[in-house]
């Protein structure tokens, strides 16, 4: 139950971070937003160090660095994927892959679910697709390149979560600090190389920093959830993060929640209840 609640908190924080990051990216080039968000996220993790502790054993350094590279790749592939579109097709593909790969790894590592979990897990996967499906022209078909990018983005997100889970359980926030430092370095290097193409628009500093802080909170809650529960369950619940984005868009931007998304939210509630019984 504790792992489930932590995973739900992680999902909500990821959804809020994506919402704020998306709004920030409307005002300036996405790399300008990430250049603020990533260091803000790293700052939060450094502040947590004295309270939660951190060790930097070789395994922590290796898995943390791997998660950082995967995180940087996920940002690049995800935003490129959504830029090509259509979002209402590609976003569910990305979310589904990001959930399914950790599930497979969890089962390979010997995790087993009861009857309620075996019913709740596919329901949660279905909810991931329904909730993340935006409103768009249903007749539009994605190109092969767009689908490959969507698969790559989902795999990169999944790898980030898997690598964090593989870090030693007694490493505290060490993997998060190393991962965010690596992803920040990669992002800043990419921004430096593309500086002439970033435009002159000023970034939304407060919004971008808030997105980074929430992303850091989401990573921490996922790490704690994965250490106290099954990776398969935690990853699927975390992948419901589009629900938070959808609800915020409805509350703040007055965007309509479409029928499929409402069904997805109801399916998610049922799935979480079943997984709680597990």
What does this molecule look like?
This protein is mainly alpha-helical. It is built from eleven helices and no strands. Helix 2 packs antiparallel against helix 7, helix 3 (58-84) runs antiparallel to helix 6 (144-166) and helix 4 (87-108) runs antiparallel to helix 9 (231-238). The protein is globular.
**Spans of 5+ residues with little confidence (pLDDT < 50)?**
none
Write the element-wise H/E pattern from the N-terminal end onward. HHHHHHHHHHH
Strand coverage percent:
under 5%
From the N-terminal CA to the C-terminal CA, the straight-line distance is 9 Å
Query: Which structural category fits the helices and strands?
Result: mainly alpha
Biggest sheet architecture: none
In DSSP terms, counting alpha (H) and pi (I) runs of 4 or more, how many helices? 11
Protein traits:
278 residues; mainly alpha
Short account of what is shown:
This protein has 278 residues and is mainly α.
Explain the layout of strands and helices:
Layout: H1 2-27, H2 30-52, H3 58-84, H4 87-108, H5 115-132, H6 144-166, H7 174-193, H8 205-228, H9 231-238, H10 242-252, H11 259-277
Helix pairs in contact: 1-2, 1-8, 1-9, 1-10, 2-7, 2-8, 3-4, 3-6, 3-7, 4-5, 4-6, 4-9, 5-9, 5-11, 8-9
